[in-house]
Amino acid sequence: MLEQVLKSLQTLPHRLTGTENEKKACEILKNLLEELGYSVRVEGFSSPRTFSWSYLVIYLGFFLGLILAIFYPIWGGAIFLISLFLFLGEQTTLFPVLTCRVFARGKSQNLIAFSPEQEGIKENSKRLWLVAHYDSSKTSLAFAPNTVKYIRVMFRISLYLLGLGGLMILLQLFSSNPSWAVPKILLAISGLYFFYMSIMMLERELRGKPVQGACDNASGVAVVLELARRLKEEPPSGLELRILLTGAEEVGMVGMANFFKKHCSELERKKDYFFNFDSLGEGELCYITKEGMIFPLSGSAELLKICREISQQENFLSLKAKPYTALTLDTLVARSRGFGVLSLMALTEQGIPQPWHWFDDTWDKIDYKKLELACDFAQQVIQGFARNQRD
């Protein structure tokens, strides 16, 4: 199934969010799951085609607010606070005003599948969602091989300068010496940094090229479908399984956010868990202990305990436990809403996936042995999780 999925997706040059290719990829995956005997439903939703415009607005807002605060602290402070509100909304996924409302002018879709044989399972059984996003991204200078290893450093600088800029605005507002030059200099430095970040967003949108998205994230999709095949043949007793393949992850986890928006009344924090597969490319295979760029959130304690136990087995000694704070994953949407999650990725020594949003994310980078290992490990985790429910 791994090879079949990857060869099927390989017929598409890319799977950019909101494009016809993304829609075709969804149709390919729908057909493959139906061939395995799953009932499949496709759910469409409005989505932006890129995250660049959202962050361009935010970074320009920071730039204007910080620079304006040098001369007009009240007006500058107001723009700064509005931009901060928008920034936190995107980063936490709790109120993404720009991606899910202002710029949601395109169309994407999620794919949900389940096995009809599981319809008679007990209502109080826990439900495990196997998750992977099937859309792909475009290139950006921020993800070039020589600069991508500094992406977390750049984000930390952004956070430090936001804190510094906010403090300097307060000094401008309440200082007894308004002519003091230090706050103004620091505001200018902070503002210019966010102007640079705005240029990076503009460069991505104007010059970025679609990538094939083999490792990010055809690899994760292939693992989910291979697990779907295995678990159809040997279903774990006492555990309800669902498949969730999301679109629009690369533009701000919009697919996952829309899934929760549509199904919030059906989902239960004590029942529903999410097992995500993303960017299984170069580096060590890792189960993610916590994720998030500003406020990292821990994965499910129960699932992490199972991972630790299984990783002691001889076949899985190469698997590592690592946090992921370079960017965000679909599971952050679930975790920030109080649901148990676990993600499986391949990370380099710098703690980033590779290849990643660059021209080298091609089909020849796929390591089938690593994908088989990911499937074997994940199957053991699922069986362990099911066993815990029976005990």
Shape: elongated
Structural class: alpha/beta
Total tally of structural domains: 2
Biggest sheet descriptor: 9 strands, mixed
How much of the sequence is in beta strands?
Answer: 15-25%
What series of H and E elements makes up the topology? HHEHHHEEHHHEHEEEHEHEH
Rounded mean pLDDT score: 95
The low-confidence parts are none
How would you characterize this protein structure?
The chain has 391 residues and is of the alpha/beta class. The protein has helices spanning 2-9, 20-35, 52-71, 73-92, 97-102, 151-174, 181-207, 214-233, 254-263, 301-310, 330-335, 368-390; strands spanning 39-47, 106-114, 127-133, 240-246, 272-277, 284-291, 297-298, 320-324, 340-347. Strands 1, 2, 3, 4, 5, 6, 7, 8 and 9 form a nine-stranded mixed sheet that branches. A hairpin with a 5-residue loop joins strand 6 (284-291) and strand 7 (297-298). Helix 1 runs antiparallel to helix 8 (214-233). It is elongated and about 75 Å long. 48% of the residues are buried.
Topology:
Elements: H1 2-9, H2 20-35, E1 39-47, H3 52-71, H4 73-92, H5 97-102, E2 106-114, E3 127-133, H6 151-174, H7 181-207, H8 214-233, E4 240-246, H9 254-263, E5 272-277, E6 284-291, E7 297-298, H10 301-310, E8 320-324, H11 330-335, E9 340-347, H12 368-390
Parallel strand pairs: 3-4, 3-5, 5-9, 6-8
Antiparallel strand pairs: 1-2, 2-4, 6-7, 6-9
